Amino acid sequence: MLHLVDSAASPAVSQTDEETHRLAHVRRYEILDTPPEVAFDRITAMAADLFDAPIAIISFLDRDRLWFKSHHGLDETEVRWGQGTALSTMQTMIRSEFGPGFFASAPLTTHGGHDLGTLCVIDHEPRQADEQQLRHLATLAALVVDRLELRLTARRAAARAEILASEIDHRAMNSLQLIASLLHLQSRAVQAPETSQQLTIAANRVLAVARVHRNFSADETAERVPILAYLRRLCGELADSLAIEIHVEGSESSVPTKQILAIGLVVNELTTNAKKHGAEPIKVTFKQGTPGHYELCVLDEGKGLPEGFTLDEEREGAGLGIKVVKALVAQLEGHLLATANPAGRGACFTVIFPYETVEADAIARLQG
Ligand SMILES: Nc1ncnc2c1ncn2[C@@H]1O[C@H](COP(=O)(O)OP(=O)(O)O)[C@@H](O)[C@H]1O
Ligand SMILES: [Mg+2]
Questions:
Q1: pTM of the predicted structure, to 2 decimals
Q2: Which of 137, 169, 301, 344 is buried most, with the most CB atoms less than 10 Å from its CB?
Q3: Whole-number Cα distances in Å, 45 to 55, 130, 209, 330
Q4: CATH number, domain 220-368, options 3.40.50.720, 3.50.50.60, 3.30.565.10, 3.20.20.70
Q5: Residue 319: CB within 6 Å of ligand 1?
Q6: How many whole angstroms from 321 Cα to the centroid of ligand 2?
């Protein structure tokens, strides 16, 4: 069993510039305290096998500890001590843990020449290692470093992609706001009140797209979005801009990001209608409905739908709102229902749409 190094007995070496520099390099790889990774575990397993030894460790030297990224044949995940110490001293310390046993190690030296830690093999029984084994151990250590460099490159690429995506989002948002402002200007410039009103409505729809987009691009770059949290943010903003109260209820689900724009725009149209034709309080609910389907409702407590109202009706002079909603619902491959609010007063618009088709197919395949 490995006894952790007694800090009192450890050599207290002051932190030199060189040590600070080396630590900065270890940190740069963002490897410390990360979960185990198969790639590294394979390398320690192979190193142990190479020497027919029970223990192999990939360790990184932190300021006050030696942290193990992979620890084949050993439960411990680190060795701590009081203060910073040179890598060579640390190796001596590890070796001293095992008395006259067997210890072979190869440094983890970066392409830039910085030592980050070691790949070592340990046995309680003394024995000799031959030249070839040591050469292979050095190659395995080089593979560990290659893996670290790849990891770093991938992380940087991901970070750059994220910055780029948010920059593009930002520009798209600014463009939408600009288009909305231009439409508002145009609405003020025309004489005919009807045309002016239509242009204002168009400007507001453009702003709605920006709002719907902004509320999920802010912090979710993932494939799926927690829908209730999203609807709460969106409706919070809608409530402010329409000067109404909107309650959001239901059960949380993660919905594919590509469906969010349609859902957000539907909510925008229906809550705008609920304010225009209905009355507060307005409620938006989202839940899992019939098996394989989501159910989104917008309810108000106004005067209710007009006599003989149907969604199919192509009435003369009817607004564009319901048409827009129907087009968005078709995009979700769902259907739209308009009923009286089951709570008693007002209207209820319900959108029922299936879980993303790809996902449903995958589930169907798994089931049978
Ligand atoms: N929440 C609601 N309460 C009562 N009637 C509604 C509600 N939402 C829509 N309607 C009815 O449906 C019609 C069509 O709505 P819409 O297409 O958005 O056009 P608009 O809002 O411009 O009138 C409305 O004119 C109204 O009669
Ligand atoms: Mg409308």
A1: 0.64
A2: 137
A3: 8, 19, 54, 54
A4: 3.30.565.10
A5: yes
A6: 4
